[in-house]
């Protein structure tokens, strides 16, 4: 017995104490007030200064699409070798960004990473908006948009069914399932927090709207029992789902025979790249949000540090994949493959894009090996910007350089995006940001019920520390 | 018409030990309400593990069968198409796996959502507990315990004394609304 006590004590005062996930010993009520305050109080001037331009830029999306649909796909720069230009690049770019949200909400949940609770809500919202932006491009790229229902497996007048052997149709199922499941996951997580907003509502309209969506939640433990199981199940379903989505996106390329596309490394490489780019976008959004709404005690330097480590890790995987592609091109001895990579790196039309990608995705994140860089907000933001740019270039490099110069030199041609493509893509950034700002305006940006659950006093075996503040309380008093 | 007693506890630890005692006293129709799920509370209340995974298993299996049937019958039985010189037959089933997988997940996720709501008995527009002003704190920092009148052991006087002995504060008798 005496031995047992000594061990417990020495563990409690171990020098490697875990960093606290919520700083300054905040109370439950403080968390409620601070997070609901973001929704309930008038938005700061900065919100309007971002929202108005974002909403104006977002209008470029309908403008670009109206020009496209009323005129035809010819208003885009796609030409004969490059049938897929910016549209597919932007699609994969946006859908990849979404993946970090699912990683945070599902995979980090399954691996019991408690720090996820401060960022998972915003990251999941980001997922939804990124997938919305992504969906625009393939949908309008079909040419005759009024025929887009041919993608759905419904009988048509000719009795012809979809070609289920096509990777593009797999994509339809993967992306639509991904979006639906992400919405379910996000909404189920929101229910307890919507109940908080309902209970704090100051007028009938708010009470009604939040009340409807809170579904009559009353925090009952008989409900929590099923709710936690549902959350666990959704996490367990989303984890293979998110891996499958980007794998299937990569099949669009990997199942073809084009040199530079036809590689078995694509599925894991795309998934790692998606998580890499997505985490950079999470930080790009959360670092300013943390500052504007004074969420320093909830999104701590430790959170940023953890995300920076993930960026460093996945960035290194991506770097490995780039090098492995080159190695296999050489080792495989296929002259078309070797030529494709020579063009991609040195002699092709877009060789410079390859080096932009290499610098942004492989070199830049390496600074995160250093703790000082991970704890320096400016450095983190700069690297995240590089990664955001680099991941867009990665897709551009893979997709466009491979088909601009494929088999026959006589068919080679350069691809230039037209202004219609450019404004549509720019518009999706406005749309993404505007939707995210609206989300901050109307929903709790941090999952209150989850953050409250990780406070030390939430453990039912927690003992109040002495009022003198003498006793060093074990962080997690596990039974 | 009485709904039951609502009372408050100061902390998760207090609520947890109270729940153990209410369970041991043999109550059946009672509940605790907290702003977040309390670790170990299911055991303290004597609740069984949720049966939701069974629903989800069959939901997912339905998705698997749907995915397979949709593809096999439309591609092989109804309208075999030869694309890129590739026929469609029993050997092309591996090409159907991605859609089968996605539909499995999709059906399972819908079953999770609707199964969970069904098991919880939500959504509902109102509940007697919402008549209590104090109860609003459950979504902020309040820890509550309720004992329903429908419980066989419920006794207006004895239950109140029992709750007081457990250290409960703000004990309220909650009225049921609507036609009595």
Task: Write a concise keyword list for the protein shown above.
A: 479 residues; mainly alpha; Formate dehydrogenase/DMSO reductase fold; 17 helices; 67% helix; disordered N terminus; disordered C terminus; B: 180 residues; alpha+beta; Alpha-Beta Plaits; 14% strand; elongated
What does this entry look like structurally?
The complex is a heterodimer of chains A (479) and B (180). With 479 residues, chain A is mainly α. Chain A has a single domain, classed as Formate dehydrogenase/DMSO reductase fold, CATH 1.20.1630.10. Chain A is 67% helix and 0% strand. Chain A is built from 17 helices and no strands. Chain A has helices at residues 2-12, 28-40, 45-58, 60-71, 86-110, 120-141, 167-200, 204-214, 221-254, 266-292, 301-332, 335-347, 351-363, 371-374, 377-404, 419-442, 448-453. In chain A, helix 5 (86-110) crosses helix 10 (266-292) and helix 9 (221-254) packs across helix 10. The two termini of chain A are 16 Å apart. Chain B is an alpha+beta fold. Chain B has 2 domains: 2-47 and 127-175, Alpha-Beta Plaits (2-Layer Sandwich); 52-120, no CATH class. Chain B has 5 helices and 4 strands, in the order E-H-E-H-H-H-E-H-E. Chain B has helices at 12-24, 41-45, 52-78, 97-120, 158-165, and strands at residues 2-9, 30-33, 143-148, 169-175. Chain B has a 4-stranded antiparallel sheet. The longest helix of chain B has 27 residues, at 52-78. The termini of chain B are close together. The mean pLDDT of chain B is 89.
Topology at a glance:
The complex is a heterodimer of chains A (479) and B (180).
Chain A: H1 2-12, H2 28-40, H3 45-58, H4 60-71, H5 86-110, H6 120-141, H7 167-200, H8 204-214, H9 221-254, H10 266-292, H11 301-332, H12 335-347, H13 351-363, H14 371-374, H15 377-404, H16 419-442, H17 448-453
Helix pairs in contact in A: 3-16, 4-16, 5-6, 5-9, 5-10, 5-15, 6-7, 6-16, 7-8, 7-9, 9-10, 10-11, 10-15, 11-12, 12-13, 13-15
Chain B: E1 2-9, H1 12-24, E2 30-33, H2 41-45, H3 52-78, H4 97-120, E3 143-148, H5 158-165, E4 169-175
Antiparallel strand pairs in B: 1-3, 1-4, 2-3
Helix pairs in contact in B: 3-4
């Amino acid at each position: 017995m005496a031995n047992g006590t000594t061990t417990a004590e020495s563990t409690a005062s171990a020098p490697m104490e875990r960093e606290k996930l919520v700083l300054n010993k905040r109370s439950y009520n403080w968390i409620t007030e601070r997070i609901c305050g973001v929704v309930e109080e008038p938005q700061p001037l900065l919100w309007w200064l971002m929202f108005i331009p974002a909403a104006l830029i977002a209008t470029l999306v309908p403008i670009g699409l109206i020009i496209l649909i009323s005129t035809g796909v010819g208003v885009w720069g796609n030409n004969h070798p490059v049938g897929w230009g910016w549209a597919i690049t932007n699609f994969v770019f946006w859908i990849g960004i979404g993946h970090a949200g699912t990683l945070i909400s599902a995979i980090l949940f399954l691996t019991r990473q408690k720090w996820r609770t401060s960022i998972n809500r915003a990251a999941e919202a980001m997922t939804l908006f990124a997938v919305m932006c992504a969906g625009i491009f393939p949908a309008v790229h079909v040419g005759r948009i009024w025929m887009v229902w041919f993608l759905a497996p419904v009988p048509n007048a000719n009795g012809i069914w979809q070609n289920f052997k096509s990777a593009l149709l797999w994509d339809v199922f993967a992306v639509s399932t991904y979006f639906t499941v992400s919405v379910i996951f996000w909404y189920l997580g929101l229910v307890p927090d919507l109940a908080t907003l309902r209970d704090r509502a100051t007028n009938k309209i708010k009470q009604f709207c939040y009340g409807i969506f809170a579904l009559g939640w009353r925090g009952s433990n008989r409900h929590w029992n099923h709710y936690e199981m549902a959350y666990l199940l959704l996490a367990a379903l989303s984890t293979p789902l998110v891996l499958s989505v980007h794998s299937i996106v990569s099949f669009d390329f990997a199942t073809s025979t084009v040199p530079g596309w036809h590689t078995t490394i694509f599925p894991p490489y795309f998934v790692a790249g998606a998580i890499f780019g997505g985490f950079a976008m999470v930080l790009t959004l959360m670092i300013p949000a943390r500052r504007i709404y004074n969420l320093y005690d909830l999104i701590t330097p430790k959170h940023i540090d953890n995300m920076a480590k993930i960026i460093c890790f996945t960035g290194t995987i991506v770097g490995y994949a780039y090098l492995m592609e080159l190695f296999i091109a050489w080792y495989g001895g296929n002259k078309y493959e070797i030529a494709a990579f020579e063009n991609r790196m040195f002699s092709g039309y877009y060789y410079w894009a390859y080096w932009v990608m290499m610098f942004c995705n492989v070199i830049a994140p390496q600074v995160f090996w250093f703790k000082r860089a991970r704890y320096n907000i400016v450095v983190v933001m700069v690297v995240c910007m590089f990664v955001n740019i680099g991941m867009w270039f990665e897709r551009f490099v893979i997709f466009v350089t491979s088909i601009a110069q494929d088999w026959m030199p006589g068919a080679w041609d350069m691809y230039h995006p037209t202004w219609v493509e450019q404004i549509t893509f720019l518009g999706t950034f406005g749309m993404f940001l505007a939707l995210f700002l609206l989300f901050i305006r109307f929903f709790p940006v941090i999952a209150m019920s989850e953050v409250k659950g990780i406070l030390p006093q939430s453990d039912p075996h927690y003992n109040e520390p002495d009022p003198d503040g003498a006793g060093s309380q074990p962080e997690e008093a596990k039974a | 018409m009485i709904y039951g007693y609502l009372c408050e506890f100061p902390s998760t630890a207090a609520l947890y030990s109270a729940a153990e005692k209410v369970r041991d006293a043999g109550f059946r129709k009672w509940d605790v309400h907290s702003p977040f799920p309390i670790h170990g509370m299911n055991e303290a209340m004597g609740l069984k593990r949720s049966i939701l995974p069974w629903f989800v298993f069959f939901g997912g299996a339905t998705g698997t069968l749907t995915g397979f049937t949709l593809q096999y019958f439309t591609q092989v039985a109804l309208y075999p198409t030869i694309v890129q010189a590739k026929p469609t037959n029993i050997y092309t089933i591996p090409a159907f796996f991605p859609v089968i997988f996605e539909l499995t997940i999709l059906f399972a996720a819908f079953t999770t959502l609707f199964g969970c709501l069904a098991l919880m008995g939500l959504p509902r527009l109102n509940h007697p507990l919402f008549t209590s002003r104090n109860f609003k704190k459950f979504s902020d920092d309040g820890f509550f315990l309720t004992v329903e009148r429908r419980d066989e052991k419920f006794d207006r006087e004895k239950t109140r004394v029992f709750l007081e002995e457990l250290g409960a504060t703000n004990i309220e008798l909650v009225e049921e609304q609507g036609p009595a």
